[in-house]
Structure formats: structure tokens, C-alpha cells
Write a structure and sequence with these properties.
The two termini are 31 Å apart. The protein has a six-stranded antiparallel β-sheet, with no helix packed on it. It has a six-stranded antiparallel β-sheet with strand order 24-33-26-27-28-29, with no helix packed on it. By secondary structure, it is mostly beta strands. It has one helix at residues 3-15; strands at 33-44, 47-55, 65-71, 78-79, 95-103, 106-118, 123-133, 140-141, 155-167, 170-179, 184-191, 197-205, 213-222, 225-233, 249-256, 261-264, 268-269, 277-283, 289-294, 309-310, 317-322, 325-330, 338-350, 353-357, 363-370, 378-385, 393-398, 403-407, 417-421, 427-435, 438-443, 448-453, 460-468, 472-482. The model is unreliable at 390-395 (pLDDT under 50). It is globular, with a radius of gyration of 22 Å.
Length: 487
Amino acid sequence: MNKIEQAQHSLNEAEKKVNHQYRLGYHIMAPANWINDPNGLVQYKGEYHVFYQHHPYDENWGPMHWGHVKSKDLVHWQHLPIALAPGDPFDKDGCFSGSAVDNEGELTLIYTVHNYIDKELDTFFQNQNIAVSKDGITFEKAEANPVIAEPPADSSHHFRDPKVWKHEDFWYMILGNSTKKKEGRVILYRSSNLRKWEYVGVLAKSDGDLGYMWECPDFFELDGKHVLMISPQGIEAKGDSYHNLFQTGYLVGEYNYETNTFHHGSFTELDYGHDFYAVQTLLDDKGRRIAIGWMDMWEANMPTKEDGWCGALTLPRELTLRGDKVLMNPVQELTSLRKTQYNMLTNKALSNSYVVEVNEDLLEIQAVFDLVDCQASSVGIKIRGINNEETLMCYCYNLNEQKLLLDCTHSGKEDGVRKVALQAGETLALRIFVDRSSVEVFANEGQATMTSRIYPKESRLGIELFTEGGNVIVKELTYWNLKDIWG
């Protein structure tokens, strides 16, 4: 067997042993073992393709392969054979993150090669490579590899995660990078054929407060402005911000291709939950900019390793721009997951709490609170277990602090609380997707999002709406049971 066949065989065997207690019902996962960053989001021959960093031999991180799924509708995903496996002379230690483009019918993967100099000392070098496919399933690595053999002279060895796009007559590639002075930055290359690349220069860099390395960059035009998404490493926590090990966020500004100048504002986190990283986007044939992130975080508690798998991707989210703020909302197609709809409350006064008993694992919840005459100190939702797990999840909007709070303390998170400022105005609308081991919160049409993995040990009792310190009018409480796309 070749390297792809060996990896696929190992994965097929591992899938037979997976414990399904926390397996997700409508998110992208590998059949078994480890995954992390989404790679190569692209539309090809009428279908959406998503690749991901994958270790098919173990539930822990290891030599990176590229896993692969595709979909016609961004909802129902089909596993495809592993797309890339390391082991060739130029990529012996790992096929790291990258992107994909449709080059006149040839699906091209652009990825980072990771090769160790001394594994115990974690010294390594990285370069950029390509692989091509005519059918979107089997890939051949290019003879020209590596297409970019080494980083610029002022760079450290951190030189990875290529994102490639075409503008007019040229292909452009940005890379996450660090200087020898340990300053995070994004650098830019240009090519006419995807094989020979010219170094253009620095697109953006840290001002000293944005970490030592910028991973997983993405750069695109959105609603008339340019957005640079990055995942900085090494930012210290400040107030309610930057509480995960690493962060994901964006810079918004104006870009000039002729001069390679990007004038931008300050860095803003994209999601304030525990588990959101390494986001990547695609522009689809409907003109939408769609983002998917890794729904986990480095060094977090990952109990599913004991079940033979680890890691998942977020729901696909459509990006829009309001001023200089990027909003994320679930793509419209996700409504096709809905089964039975339950309209529980409409324009009802709530003075304490209201419990809906529902033990379904897969839920979408819409809760809308009228804040115009609300005197409460906080309002929100709890997802409750049947016994003493008093809350599995808690969403609390504190009317005094003007913050949205996500508390996973009693659902598997030691560092369980995250907060984000939210000026809700007259209405607080929470749209919540609950899966067997995840929750994704979208507040006021994407003004704030919070994504976290959860690991409940009890069966579910139901949904509880609550208010503290005063009454609130609940304009709507609706929930849907959702389909299991893998069941």
C-alpha cells in the first residue's frame, strides 16, 4: 500500500472502535482520531470542499495529513479519502495547513511542509508546496515542490499556512510568519502560474502587542473594505479579551495592490467562546464569504481522546461587515436541519424562570427578550441536566454590565466563563445551536458569537429561561429538534 492507502486503512480500523457518546450530529468531524485546522475551503465543480489537518493513526496530534469532506449544501457532508499524506523527501514530517484554488478545472492544494531538524529540541524548517487533482479526490504532489523553499532573510523558522487567491492576472499568497525579533506578521507573494513565486513584502505586522506569531491568515474584500483574519500566538489576557491560549480575530481597512499598503484599524477577536481557532473562508458562487473554524483549542481538556477521536469544525458562517465590525451568522442552508418546531412562548412576562423539558441532544433555540422596560439585572438561558448538574450551559446578559456571558463550568470546562461586551439596545436575540458536545451562540444577528465544546455527564432535562432582579418580557422562545447528518 502507498502512504495514502496505509493512512486510510488505519483510519477505517480506528473508526470501528470509536465511542459515540460525544460524537457530533451535524458538524464536520473525521471518522476517527485527531483533527485541527480547517484547510482548503473551496467550491469545485458545483460542490463545497473542506479539508482539515488530520492524524489518522492516533487521537493525539501527530504527523499531519489532510482529511477531506465535500457537500452540495454546506449541511450534509460526505467523507472522502485522505487527500495528502507526508513521507516524501520534501514533506517527510508533515503536510501542514494551507488552502485550495480551482485553477481552470484543476483543484490545487497549497500547503506548508514541516520538517524537523531536531525533534527533541523542536527545531524545524518550513516551506510551501502544491498538489493537484483533476477529479477533486486524488491528488498528485508537484515535481516543482517546494514552490517556495525558504522564508525571507529577516524571518524566523515560523513560515506557514498559505492562503492563495487570484486578483486580475496574478495569484497571491499570504503566509503566517514571525520575524527574528519574534514579531508576528503576514507576508505576501505573487505568481502567474502557482509554481514560481515572487516575494512582495510585509502585508501587516504586530505593533508589539499582538504576539510572536500570526497563524492561519486569510485576506479578502468584504462589503467594500479589506479584512485580514489572523490567529495570533502570544497575546496576554486583558479584561474580557484573549482568555484562550491563542486567539483568532481580524483587522479591517483599505488595501492597495499596486503599493502593497494595508491601512487598518485595531485587532478585534472574532469569537469569544472557549473553542474557536484557525478560521478560514471561501467566496462561494452566491457571492457569500463563508467562514469555518476549528472548534477546539490547544492545551484544552479533550475527553473525547478516550473515545478514539478528537476535534471538530464549526458550523459554516456567513460573514458581513457593519462599519468596521465583522458579523458572523449561520448560513441559511442550516435551516434544512430542522425537524419539529416548538413555539413555547410569545410575548409573555417572565418573573423568575420557565423550564421546557426536552431531552433531545441536537437543538436549535431562538430566544428573544424585550429589554425596553426590563428592570432585571440579568436574563438568559440554561441548558440543564436531569440531576445535580445545575447548568450545562448558561447564557446571561447582564443589563448593568452590558455583557454576554457564557458559563460552561458545569459542563466540562475548568476555566468555564467567557464574557463579551454587547450593546443590545431594545432587544436581546439569542440563536443557539446545541450538539452533543458543542454549543454555538449568535447574539443579535452576529454582533457577538461564542463557541465552546461541552462534555455533559448527565442526560438532558431541558431548556430554562430565567430572569434575576426583575421581570422581563419574552418576545419569543422557539426550538427545533435537528437532524443527525451522520446517523
